Amino acid sequence: MIAAPRDIVWSRAALVAFGLAFLSACANSPSVSSTSKVESAAASVDHSERMTGYVESRRVTDFCPDQNQRRADERCVVTHGWDYGRGVHVVHTYDPEGKLISTVEPPGADLSLTSAEAARVEALVRSDPRTRDIVNKPGVLFWSGGFAMREPGDPWCDKGSRCIRAVAYIGDGQTTVLHSVVDLMRDEVVYPNYVPSGKKLSEHNEVP
């Protein structure tokens, strides 16, 4: 057997590596059909009430970063919020006089929903043409208490997203009629039908 020239062997290895990378990229990228579905649905929704700017999620009193230089009874105020202009979690620290002394952006941190955000999540699911016929039936209640969702490699709910799971149910909450995912950064329902185990029935699938 004649050995293949080294440059040909390396070329084949490079082609294999490229092929695997290409397939991986395709798997983690929204398909044309799924993207067109969400864009079509989004076009029929009123986005005038979308979340904008900095939305404060919680405010707590805590020890100051320089507490050892302050009186024992002095405390700082720490606020947590989501910046919808940049898609980041922002933490501000204010001294006892109300002066901003620190701003950090912790990566990967999720925030509970404000009442305004919860209302927007519900409004989007109730108005999306893929979900509205189900959730607007008499007796259907809504819960969007803040199951924030961020999955590395997910085409819609990775870094910079504000994906929230929204559950529509009837009765005492034991009967779920629809489990969806909304990205408040996009102001869209990105998964109209989501399986709680974490696996999508299909990407941007139509709700049966």
What report would you give on this structure?
The protein has 208 residues and is an alpha+beta fold. The chain has a domain at 54-104. It is 25% helix and 28% strand. It is built from four helices and eight strands, in the order ααββββααββββ. The protein has helices at residues 6-27, 32-43, 115-127, 132-135, and strands at 54-62, 76-83, 88-94, 100-104, 141-149, 163-170, 175-183, 188-191. The strands form two sheets. The chain has a four-stranded antiparallel sheet with strand order 1-2-3-4, with no helix packed on it. Strands 5-6-7-8 form a four-stranded antiparallel sheet, covered by helices on one side. The longest helix is centred in the first third of the chain and has 22 residues, at 6-27.
Structure in a nutshell:
This protein has a domain at 54-104. It has four helices and eight strands.
How is this fold's topology laid out?
Elements: H1 6-27, H2 32-43, E1 54-62, E2 76-83, E3 88-94, E4 100-104, H3 115-127, H4 132-135, E5 141-149, E6 163-170, E7 175-183, E8 188-191
